[in-house]
Structures are given as C-alpha cells and as structure tokens.
Amino acid sequence: xxxxxxxxxxxxxxxxxxxxxxxxxxxxxxxxxxxxxxxxxxxxxxxxxxxxxxxxxxxxxxxxxxxxxxxxxxxxxxxxxxxxxxxxxxxxxxxxxxxxxxxxxxxxxxxxxxxxxxxxxxxxxxxxxxxxxxxxxxxxxxxxxxxxxxxxxxxxxxxxxxxxxxxxxxxxxxxxxxxxxxxxxxxxxxxxxxxxxxxxxxxxxxxxxxxxxxxxxxxxxxxxxxxxxxxxxxxxxxxxxxxxxxxxxxxxxxxxxxxxxxxxxxxxxxxxxxxxxxxxxxxxxxxxxxxxxxxxxxxxxxxxxxxxxxxxxxxxxxxxxxxxxxxxxxxxxxxxxxxxxxxxxxxxxxxxxxxxxxxxxxxxxxxxxxxxxxxxxx
Length: 378
Ligand SMILES: C[S@@+](CC[C@H](N)C(=O)[O-])C[C@H]1O[C@@H](n2cnc3c(N)ncnc32)[C@H](O)[C@@H]1O
Hints:
This protein is α/β, with parallel strands linked by helices.
C-alpha cells in the first residue's frame, strides 16, 4: 500500500466515501504524495511517458510560429505574454524561447503556471538563461494581460473528473470507498446537482450502465483561462472526443500510467500512477463560448504541425543528414536522423499526431495555423 493509499483509507473510514474527483485530485496533487507534486520527473525520458515537447524541440519550434501569428493578429503589440499551464520539465518553454526572433521576441514575456515547488525549481534552472520568464503557482494567481496566448499541452486530461452511471433511469455517482482495508468503487446518489446539469449541457442521453466522466474542473479551468487575457488565444492540446462519442464508451476513458506501463486500475497505487481521461471537447467548447472565447477545432496535432511547417523542417533534417554523411560526421548524421524520426512520431496519427488541438480566440481573426474544420475526433 502506498503512503497516500494509507492516508485515503483512514480518511474514508472516518468520513465516508469521496467523489472520484476528490480521489483523483489527491492522487495527482496531494502536496507530499501526489503523482505530480511529490517531485520526481514524470514526463520525458526519465519519467513514465513522453509528451510532444519532451520528444523533440521541433514541437516548440513549430509552435513558436503559431504564437507569432497570434501576436500579429493582435496587431503586433509591444507587450505579449505567453502563459504556459502545466509546463512539466520546461522543455516546451526552452524550445519556444530558443526559436523566437525580433521583433516578436522583443514583445514576448513567458509565464509558467506550475504548482509543484520542486518542478518550479527545475524549470527555473533550465529557463533562467532566457530572462523574461516568470512563474505563478496557480491559475488563480495569473493576472489578466492585454494581449497574450495561453498554452496547455496534455493538462485538461489531468483535471479531476466525477464519475457517473445511469442505472434503471436514475443517475448514480461512482465514488471511492473502502472494502477490506483497500480502496474500491461504490455507487451512491450524486454528490452534486451539477453532475446532472453537466450531462444536459453536453446534450447527451447516457446509455444504461455506461460510465461517464464529468469534467466540472475542466469547465472551471477554461473559465479561468478566459480571464487571463483581453485579446489573443488559448490553445488546448489533448487526446479527446466529443461528448456523444465519450457517452458510447461503456467504461469511460480513464487510464493510468506508471513505471509498470498503462492500465485501467486507477485506484491502485495512488500517488505512483498518472490518471488521465479524454478531454470532453463538447464541454470545453461550451465553456469557451461561456468565457467569450471563440473555439476552433478540434484539429489533429498532425494537421496543425503540418500547417506550421513540419514538412520544411523534415526536409531540413534530411539535408543535414546527407551533408553529415558526406562529411563522414557520424554524430551529426545520427542526430539529424533521430530528429527526423521524432518529427514522424509527432505527426503519427496512431500516436502523438492523434492528439487534438482546440484554439479559442478573442478579439482576433482566425490565425492561419488553425483551420476551421472539424476532423479527427473520436
Ligand atoms: C501530462 S503533464 C504535461 C506536462 C507538459 N505540458 C508536457 O507536455 O510535457 C500535465 C501537467 O499539468 C499539470 N497541471 C494539471 N492541472 C494543473 C493546473 N490546474 N495548474 C497548473 N498545472 C496543472 C500537472 O501538474 C502536470 O505537470
């Protein structure tokens, strides 16, 4: 039993079962034992899974161009803040800040929103060299800026969800209780009338027995993001689906990642496993509109990266590879080859390329990289 499971078992024994959202919040963000707050690297080659920015700096290099497009659409203001939420090990910030050039870079300041003190420290060590970087410990601390862009890569899928199931015409909430000293799922009446209202907002009829994730925290998150800038855009990148698609999955989309690999045993080893769900794009888009943001998408990551110049970068690595081979420079050739392969992985529809992007704008025309076509959901 992990130290966090012991704490949760004692707490539930004393106060009764808790909503899954409360459990997920403890499992990921408990100050001492939370998966993301305890301190060890979770993403990247030393962690449990690779994210796009950790795979190759090309991801940030390509996105830097998108941020410049948003800055241009804002009218090239003198001050433009890029606000990255959940920046992990800081790889994305490092690659964006390495790629931007004047006049955009003269206007740019970079804010990282990171709740783990240990991560903030590691990010500071990595990014201090760039100057113009600042931190906030919570989304509630980010003040509004006139012009800016909020970027969140694989963050919505880590926001706590409530679980519900429909049985014989009545909605039950799937909570976390204790049986024989271990954590277990228990079905109870809904803890909050908002759960039913969320289903209505998503416009779905939940099939009997299907489990559905209710992302109230994602709705509040988007609302908060909407308060961070007057004009500009928010970019959410995640695996996700429309509410209708999610409702058709009998067991929902919860998955756990750990050093043991991927599984569906989300109550096991709390604090030592990542817990993720698919983003519910219907709910995210509704929340965007409620926050006076105009959502575009979801668009597949592959398509966005292609419109940001993926193919040109691919050609550049091929040329670098050929030049390095001709010069018998093995290390340089290997580097160009592995970067080219990384580009393939970033765009692979069966992997990272299948991530989806929602761009939510306010006060600007649609940037060229965000094509207003709905594709790639489900
Ligand atoms: C899967 S990791 C992705 C890290 C990074 N964006 C990357 O792509 O490598 C998700 C991160 O989002 C962070 N996160 C989740 N909710 C957050 C919130 N409300 N505020 C700030 N960070 C949050 C988690 O702590 C975690 O570090």
